[in-house]
Design a protein that fits this description.
The chain has 277 residues and is mainly β. It has helices at 10-21, 49-58, 129-137; strands spanning 26-30, 36-41, 44-46, 72-82, 93-96, 107-111, 114-126, 146-154, 159-174, 186-198, 203-205, 211-218, 224-237, 264-271. It has two domains: 10-83 and 114-199, Myoviridae tail sheath stabiliser (STM4215-like, 2-Layer Sandwich); 208-271, no CATH class.
């Protein structure tokens, strides 16, 4: 509808970032002598809490092969909401000069990103309270109440940004209701809010490699003349060996000079009082 085809995979990267924070959590089981007898890595899945708990209820005895083993962690993206408090001027541009003649010397730019808050639910499922406390102590100390991660959202523009992730809520639930045939599951729910940005399309433009400024004199009656009296022309200057120059005759063509070159400035004054145009 808007005439632009682009996809930066921003939301996908935000989800991957959220999962990466919690994909390496382990718990330890100890005996009466406080010796570690078992180390378990908590599996992480992208799924809503209702789906995981439904699987638990369908197979409470763990006798079937496809049973979900505890402990386990799941997370999901729940809401996406615009944040006007972080909004900046839409007309501001992010620019990147590739400085490469192979690209035709084009400069890439994109407009200011739009701030959105992404809400995530993280659910921790355990059978024993000790397992839950171990997992929580590996997460909570890093959120005070926010944790900031750096992510490369648009590699073409080199936009590495800091993304704060705020811990907003923490609650627990015990699904055990007294039936000896019902499997017990302690569920901790952590609510997070990620302060993210969404980016628009990348555009390419040719850089300005010259300026031609005309000066118009006034007539005797005070009116402005339609004929230029003087012109100032400015363009980059570079010798064939890569040295800067201000000599127009010795310089290579301005079209072959990149913005990353060590060029000089050639300033020419032209007077049109003698019949020039």
């Amino acid at each position: 509808m808007f005439g632009h085809k682009f996809y930066h995979q921003s939301l996908r990267k935000y989800i991957i970032l959220m999962g990466t924070l919690f994909n390496d959590i382990h718990i330890q089981r100890r005996n009466a002598n406080d010796n570690v007898i078992q180390t378990i890595k908590c599996p992480l899945t992208y799924a809503p809490r209702e789906k995981v708990t439904a699987r638990l209820e369908q197979n409470p005895t763990l006798t079937e092969q496809q049973a979900i083993l505890l402990p386990r962690i799941s997370f999901e993206m729940t809401t996406l909401m615009y944040d006007p408090a972080r909004k900046l001027n839409t007309m501001n541009k992010w620019t990147k000069d590739p400085g490469d003649a192979a690209t035709g010397g084009k400069i890439k730019h994109m407009y200011q990103p739009v701030p959105y808050d992404i809400s995530f639910d993280l659910n921790i499922y355990t059978r024993y309270a000790e397992d839950a406390t171990q997992i929580l102590e590996q997460i909570l100390p890093f959120f005070t109440p926010e944790f900031t991660a750096t992510i490369d959202l648009v590699p073409e523009m080199g936009t590495k940004v800091d993304v704060p992730i705020v811990l907003e809520s923490l609650s627990s639930q015990d699904t055990y209701e007294g039936d000896f045939e019902t499997r017990r599951a302690l569920i901790w729910n952590l609510g997070f809010r990620m302060k993210s940005y969404l980016y628009g399309p990348i555009k390419e433009t040719m850089p300005i490699k010259g300026a031609n400024i005309g000066v118009f004199a006034t007539q005797s009656n005070g009116a402005y003349s339609n004929t230029r009296s003087t012109a100032v022309k400015v363009k980059p200057g570079l010798l064939a060996n890569g040295s800067p120059t201000t000599n127009s005759a010795a310089s290579v063509s301005a079209n072959t000079i990149n913005s990353t070159d060590d060029y000089g400035f050639i300033v020419d004054f032209e007077d049109y009082f003698d019949g020039g145009t």
